[in-house]
Prior knowledge:
This protein is 23% helix and 35% strand. The protein is built from 3 helices and 8 strands; from the N terminus they run E-H-E-E-E-H-E-H-E-E-E. The mean pLDDT is 95.
Amino acid sequence: MSERVLDHVGIAVTSLDESLSRWEAITGSTAYGREIVDSQGVEVVFVGHGAGRVELLTPTRADSPIARFLERRGPGIHHICYRVADITSALADFASQDFELIDREPRTGAHGHSVAFMHPKSAGGVLVELVEGS
């Protein structure tokens, strides 16, 4: 098993524009990497650096997972993300330990990175994202 490093915390918001100035003040940095991820029906932007990064997410359509999350729970922490060197190996490792995976194969996330999600049932009610990178 290789070490997994905290990459970011994902926070669901109703409006990126309304949330950005607050999160820039909290993290002491300017936003970067704003993009729409059509496959997930979400617009994202990052603030902060290193393990202190925050990904703000807002829905771009009513049937997206973030829209459903906001409808059920309101704005707040949506997921935590760990960076892994090899996402396919990490998924196989978790599957062999009987973790419930939402994604058994990686998909394309923000900025073209390979990502996959672990079901909250496997992590004490927390949605965990894995992102491949070094």
